[in-house]
Design brief:
Layout (H helix, E strand, L loop, with lengths): L1 H13 L12 E3 L3 E5 L4 E5 L4 H14 L14 E7 L14 E5 L3 E6 L2 H14 E4 L4 E7 L1 E5 L5 E7 L7 H13 L4 E7 L13 H6 L9 H12 L4 E6 L6 H6 L24 H17 L4 E3 L8 H4 L2 H9 L5 H18 L3 E5 L1 H4 L9 E4 L4 H8 L3 E4 L23 H6 L13 E8 L9 H5 L2 H10 L6 H17 L18
Parallel strand pairs: 3-4, 4-6, 10-11, 10-17, 11-12, 13-14, 14-15, 15-16, 16-17
Antiparallel strand pairs: 1-9, 2-8, 5-6, 5-9, 7-8
């Protein structure tokens, strides 16, 4: 049955000539003419002064033409791409206008957009229209004239990477950002610390990374963070850091053992160890650390975890129990709520807004209404989040590390789980308050992923989630497979180790 299915897809591939823009645009029409272009004949210009856009134009000139042409090849005429941008602001924050229109005729292409970041998406789509012909050793745009009107369904389309379980090289992070940009995804959720390690350098509290990193070289300096966030911004990708507290805090204790809870019954698993809310030093260190991170990361949002707090660890420490009794705190739930209340004050002083995992709302419903809640255990909980009046993000169903990301859905080939990712609609079962669903993120937890192995685990399945988050009507699974397989090859051509989903040949540049 699987061979028959794949054979049917291959027939579709053979008889599909229309350019495969990914993700599927909002509206898209095409004609029957072809245009031959070459690097020397392509001109890209813009109506605004923008260093970000000027840099992007130089970058896309290379991305559009990955293969060298014969020295004697001369195009018949020049081809101009004109970018008309309504606003020259380069401030990348959540909620910017990412819409664009693209009109590609036989003579020129006009891209119009309200923002420089919409212009990046227009250039991505144009780059996907230019195809290399191995038979004729040239580049063509087929099916002109082409008209695209496009804007994303959800404003938050992201991927979580985990630098705490395995240190991720900066080049690997940048490569992941390139994949997000190519897939029109706009958020890198960077899970930076956990029980296992503390690789991020705080200038105010340098002891945290000195004691908590795996290795003196397995760290991210302030210069590294600035490099990564700038790299991402120039590709339209926000970087949202996560510092998971109060649980998963063992690595804090390597530098400051007094700020984590000593609970002998639970010490066999470092994931059980939380921060100690009964010690003032805990909040002093957190404030200094968060202030440093607020200066490093330009995004207005910061993820502060809140998942999987082992409550009984608190009850296994006599000093914590006595403090709770003295301060009228009846149980661990109220102790965690006490911690979160102070944490909200700390993050406010750092001029950031907070994102948390779902437990912080579902177990402690008095958290601030300004908090964004990320759902990870099951999709039904997203409905609970928005019904309570909170803005929500979905990650349940998009866990890249899981063998069965959708309960009860089994595939003979592991990477066919792309189907589950692509079908995972954040609005499914949500009839009211749909506007509170901001979008979602695929998650690449790092217990078994490092710089050398992460690409095939992430791509192209993350792009499948990305299409669900971008496209209003992404069509059928069969059509999605054609687009996604084509996009997987494009990612490989750009140096990203994406997995093929059907048999075939992907031409890779030799340089």
């Amino acid at each position: 049955k699987m061979r028959t299915y794949v054979a049917g897809i291959l027939l579709c591939l053979l008889y599909t000539t229309n350019a495969l823009i990914f993700p599927l645009p909002t509206t898209y029409s095409y004609g029957k003419q072809s245009i031959t272009i070459a690097p020397a004949s392509l001109k890209i210009s813009t109506n605004i002064s923008s260093n970000l856009l000027d840099t992007a134009i130089l970058r896309f000139r290379k991305l559009i033409f990955p293969f060298e042409l014969e020295p004697h090849f001369l195009p018949t005429s020049s081809y101009t791409v004109q970018l008309n941008v309504g606003n020259d602001s380069e401030d990348l924050q959540f909620g910017i206008d990412e819409s664009y229109t693209l009109d590609a005729t036989v003579d020129a292409c006009l891209i119009e957009t309200p923002s420089v970041f919409g212009a990046l998406y227009g250039l991505q789509s144009f780059s996907q229209l230019v195809e290399y012909s191995a038979a004729y050793k040239n580049y063509v745009i087929n099916d002109a004239p082409i008209r695209v009107s496009d804007n994303p369904k959800f404003p938050w389309r992201g991927l979580l990477i985990d630098s705490a379980r395995h240190y991720l090289e900066i080049d690997a992070i940048k490569r992941t950002i390139d994949g997000l940009a190519a897939s029109k995804m706009n958020t890198l959720h960077w899970h930076l610390i956990d029980a296992q390690s503390f690789p991020i350098v705080s200038q105010s509290v340098p002891e945290l990374s000195k004691a908590g990193a795996y290795d003196p070289e397995a760290i991210y300096t302030p210069e590294d963070v600035k490099d990564i966030t700038q790299y991402a911004k120039y590709r339209g990708v926000r970087v949202v850091p996560e510092f998971d507290v109060p649980g998963h805090a063992y690595a804090f204790g390597k530098a400051f053992p007094e700020i984590v809870v000593n609970c002998p019954k639970y010490a066999h698993n470092i994931n059980n160890i939380p921060l100690n809310p009964t010690v003032n030093t805990t909040f002093d260190i957190l404030q200094r650390f968060l202030n440093d991170m607020a200066e490093l990361f330009p995004d207005k949002l910061m993820h502060l975890g809140g998942d999987e707090v082992v409550k009984n660890c608190f009850l296994d420490n006599p000093e914590v129990v006595q403090w709770m009794h003295d301060h009228g705190i009846a149980d661990p739930d109220h102790l965690i709520l006490y911690f979160e209340t102070i944490l909200e004050e700390l993050i406010s002083r750092a001029s950031k807004h907070m994102i948390v995992w779902e437990e912080m709302l579902l177990s402690y419903p008095s958290i601030s209404k300004n908090t964004i809640v990320q759902v990870w255990t099951n999709t039904d909980n997203l409905k609970k989040v928005v019904d309570a009046g909170y803005k929500g993000l979905l990650s349940a169903g998009w866990y890249l590390n899981e063998q069965i990301p959708k309960h009860g859905s089994f595939h003979g080939e592991f990477y066919n789980t792309w189907i589950d990712f692509w079908n995972n609609d954040p609005l499914s079962g949500i009839d009211n308050n749909q506007h509170l669903v901001l979008g979602g993120e695929a998650t690449m937890w790092g217990e078994q992923a490092d710089s050398m192995t992460m690409d095939p685990q992430i791509w192209p399945r993350t792009a499948a989630a990305g299409e669900r988050l971008w496209s209003y009507n992404p069509g059928s699974e069969d059509s999605a497979l054609i687009r996604l397989n084509d996009h997987s090859c494009r990612l490989k051509q750009r140096g990203i180790g994406s997995v093929p989903l059907t048999p075939g040949f992907c031409r890779i540049p030799k340089h």
